[in-house]
Write a structure and sequence with these properties.
By secondary structure, the protein is an alpha+beta fold. The chain has one domain. The chain is built from three helices and four strands, in the order E-H-H-E-E-H-E. It has a four-stranded antiparallel sheet with strand order 1-2-3-4. Strand 2 and strand 3 (about 90-100) form a beta hairpin. The longest helix is centred in the middle third of the chain and has 9 residues, at about 45-50. The radius of gyration is 17 Å and the shape is globular. The model has no long low-confidence stretch (mean pLDDT about 80).
């Protein structure tokens, strides 16, 4: 079992509160990397790193694989926190659609209520 995450004084305050608005941009991920036997298992070095280095620093050392940004976007407003707390990499909030680009407008109609799961590596 991993120890509790390190606190990082450089991180920003948790923004996932009622009324907060943010934009989600469409994204196409890179192709999957080949899977090999015993690949991607947390070895002793990785475990030591997660115990000694705050999440923001680890993300800067190991950035995600590139993808491509799409043209679709949607503006969302938090209407209710569902699971929002320090120590979680993912935050879950109920949101309402504020604005959507034309290609998303029919699917994501104004005022539609959704649940958003947001991966936030900079929160411990």
């Amino acid at each position: 079992m991993y120890p509790p995450p390190l606190l990082d004084v450089r991180r920003f305050p948790m923004p996932y509160i009622k009324g907060w608005e943010f934009t989600v941009q469409s994204h196409t991920p890179p192709p999957p990397t080949p899977v090999t036997y015993n690949c991607c298992l947390a070895d002793e070095t990785a475990r030591n790193e997660s115990e000694q280095i705050p999440p923001v620093e680890r993300c800067l050392r190991h950035p995600p694989l590139p993808g491509s940004i799409g043209s679709g976007a949607v503006d969302l407003k938090v209407i209710d926190p569902v699971v929002v707390e320090d120590g979680r990499n993912a935050q879950v909030v109920a949101v309402q659609v504020v604005k959507a680009t034309p290609e998303n407008a029919q699917l994501l109609q104004l005022d539609k209520k959704l649940v958003a799961k947001i991966y936030e590596p900079s929160l411990p």
